[in-house]
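Input (structure):
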């Protein structure tokens, strides 16, 4: 009876969830969120802090993933790109747009990913200024 119960319970294992929560490190450093809306599209966001400049930034992106270009022996290694926006709070409020591009490793049989992302952006409020930032992160999916 116990063996039958275990077989039934493990057959309903949900696998990787569509919602991820974790950490993002760089400048700024903070909390990362990702939600897959389909197998190749996702919305991500981060709330992060710059400890050197004393400001907080919130950003969000709509992402497109390409799963077939980079093959690995275990897991998956999609690259992605997207469009998004950000707001930073410090001495002033600054806002703008961003274009992220990254690579994400989805561990086989695990609910964990790791990613490396570079984003080009422009502030539009209060002044126009170009920037590039980079981050490394890890998330747990549920």
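Output (sequence):
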């Amino acid at each position: 009876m116990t063996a039958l119960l275990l077989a039934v319970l493990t057959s309903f294992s949900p696998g990787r969830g569509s919602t991820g929560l974790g950490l993002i490190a760089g400048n700024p450093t903070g909390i990362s969120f990702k939600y897959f809306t389909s197998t190749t599209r996702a919305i991500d966001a981060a709330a992060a802090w710059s400890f050197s400049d004393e400001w907080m930034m919130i950003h969000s992106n709509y992402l497109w993933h390409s799963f077939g270009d980079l093959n690995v022996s275990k897991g998956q290694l999609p690259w992605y790109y997207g469009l998004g926006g950000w707001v930073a709070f410090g001495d002033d409020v600054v806002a703008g747009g961003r274009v992220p591009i990254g690579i994400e490793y989805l561990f086989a049989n695990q609910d964990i990913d790791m990613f490396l992302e570079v984003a080009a952006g422009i502030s539009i409020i209060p002044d126009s200024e170009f920037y590039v930032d980079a981050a490394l992160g890890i998330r747990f999916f549920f």
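Notes: The radius of gyration is 18 Å. The first helix runs from residue 2 to 11.
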